[in-house]
Amino acid sequence: MSSAPTRPSGLAGQLSPLRSALPKAMAEKPPAAADPAGAASPSVSPSLTPFVTAPSSPAIHSRHSSSEIQPEPATRPVPRSTLGALFEQARQQERTERNQLLHLALPHGGRAMKRLKERAGRETPVTMADKWRARLNGPPKPMEGRRREAFVARVRADAMAVAKAGQLDARVAVDRIRMAVEDGTLGQNVLKEDRELLLEVLCQLADPADHLYRQLNLKITPDTRLAYTDAQVLEKPKHLTSGSFASVFALKVQNADGVAQDSVFKPLKATEKGWVGSASGIPMDDPQVAIRNIATLSCAKKLGLDVIADTRLALIDTGRGPLDPDLGLLMERAPGKQASNADADWFKNPAVFAEVTKLQLLDHLTGQVDRHDNNYFIDVGPNGDVKVTGIDNDQCFGKDLRRPSDIRPRSGLPFYGTALPPVIDTTMAAMIDDLVDDELHAMLDNQLSDDEVEATGSRLQGLRLHVDQLRGQGLVIEPGQWADTAIQARFTAQNSYIGRERTTHQVF
Q1: DSSP 380-391
Q2: Is 227 within 8 Å of 315 (Cβ atoms)?
Q3: What is the C-alpha to C-alpha distance for residues 382 and 244, in angstroms, rounded to an integer?
C-alpha cells in the first residue's frame, strides 16, 4: 500500500491548507466600488493589508505656496477576506474532503460505529429492531476484556479501510477518524461512555508506543527510548523460533551508522509464567525484562567486556499490521553457533576458555540464572578470532540472590548456572577490582529497584573475595596461560560453563 505524504503538525500544518486556499481566495475579486461621480473604481483584490486608498478629496491650497497640492488621500476600511476567514475556509475544505473519504471508506460509519449504535439502541430503544435486540440481549454490558479487544479490532479494521481508500499512512487514517469523532461527524447518537472509549482506542492506535510502555510499566530513560521502528526495517520480520516463553523473529534493519544489520526481535510481555528466575526474586507479574537486558549490557560495558549482544528497544510490526505493532528487544544477531551445537574442538581453544569465563563472571555479577548452552553463541573465525555472545538476558538481577555462587543449581532451584570459576586471568581480576561500588549504583539506580541494586552490590563483594582467594592460591594466571592443559583440567561441569560444555561434548 502506497503512503501519501502526511500533513505537517503545529503551525506549519495549519498554514498548509491555507497556502492552497489563498490563490483561490485572491482570484475571487469583490465587485467594483462606485466613486462619487458614479464611475466605477478599479476592483480591489483581497489582501492582508488593513486599508485601501479611497477616492481623493477636492484640492486645497497650501499656506506656503500658490500652487495646488493634493493632500494624502483619506482612507477607510473596505470588506476583505481576513486571515481568520481564510483559515476557516481551508478548514472547511479539509473537513469536506475528510468526510468524503470517510463516507467512501466507511459506509454507514464503519464497523465500529455500527457496534456503538447497536449498543445505544439497546440502552434507549426507538426502532422495532432496537426493541427486539434489547429484549434478546438486555442492556449493553461494559466493554471490557474480550469485548474491548473485539471493539479495538473493529476500529483498527476501519482505520485500515480509510488508509487504503485514501492511500494514507495508517496512523494518519486514525487521525482522520479521530477528528471526525471530535467534531461530531462520527459518534452521534452513541452512549457517552462508548464515545469516550472510541476516542481512547483511537489515541492508542495513533500512538501505540505510549500505550505499550504504560502497559508494560516500562520507564522511559535514555537507555529505554525507542531505537528502531518500522522505518528502519529493511527486511520484514520472519518467525525464527518459539522458545518456552516467547516468539523470536529474524529481520534486517538499518542501524545508527546506516549499515544493514542482521537482527533478532523478541516482543515483550507484561507477565511471565514458569520462570526459573522467579526463585531469585524476579516478579512474574511485572518482570521488567527490557530493563534486565539493558542493565546486563550496561554492566558488560562498564567491565569492558564484549560478551553481550547489543540490545535496544524497538516498535516493530511482526505481521498483524502497522496499527498493532509489538514493543520488544531488538538484538544484533549473534555470530557463530550456540554452545550446544559448537564444534567439540572449540572447547580446547584457549581463547574460547577465556571468553566463556568472562561471560560467566558477568553472570555471577548480574545474578543470571538462565545461562544454559542455548543462551550463548561461540564464533571461531577463519583467522582464529573468537567471539562469545550471551543472549536472552532476561532472568537476572533477582533481589533474593545475594551471593555470586548462588546462580548454580541447588535443591529445588533448577538454575542454569555454576559455581565460581576455578581460574581467572589478570585482566579479569583487574576488571573486578576496578569496578567501584558507587559507579555500579549510579549506573543501575535508574534501572533496577533498590533491593535489586543492593543485591548486585552484595554479589560484587562476593566476586572480590573470590578474586582474593584465587590470588592466594596462585590461580590468577596471565592471559597467555589458557592453553595450559593443567589449567583447563581444573574446569568442571560444577564450577564453569566451559567445563559443563566440555562434559556435554565429551571433550577429554
Answers
A1: E-TTS-EEEEE-
A2: no
A3: 34
Q: Which three cell numbers stand for residue 136?
A: 434478546
Report whether 323 contacts 159 (CB < 8 A): yes
Neighbours of 491 (CB within 10 A): 25
Could you report the per-residue pLDDT of 203-252, keeping only the tens digit for each?
999 999 999 999 999 999 999 999 999 999 999 999 987 655 568 999 99
Is residue 417 within 8 A of residue 373, CB to CB? The reply is no
Burial of residue 39 (number of CB atoms within 10 Å: 0-12, 13-18, 19+): exposed
In this structure, the number of other CB atoms found within 10 A of the CB of residue 129 comes to: 11
Please name which of 181, 201, 199, 177 lies closest in space to residue 189, comparing C-alpha atoms. Answer: 181
HSE, side-chain direction, 13 A CA sphere, residue 130: 16
Query: Which phi and psi angles does 248 have, rounded to 5°?
Result: -130, 140
- For residue 285, give the nearest of 215, 336, 181 by alpha carbon: 215
Cell of 397: 538481577
**Cβ contacts of residue 228 below 8 Å, gap of 6+?**
253, 312, 313, 314, 315, 316, 330
The pLDDT assigned to 334 comes to: 97
Place of cell 479539509: 94
Pairing label, strands 311-316, 226-229: parallel
Residue 334: closest CA among 275, 393, 263, 420 = 263
Q: C-alpha grid cell for residue 306?
A: 564484549
Other beta carbons less than 10 A from residue 385's beta carbon:
9
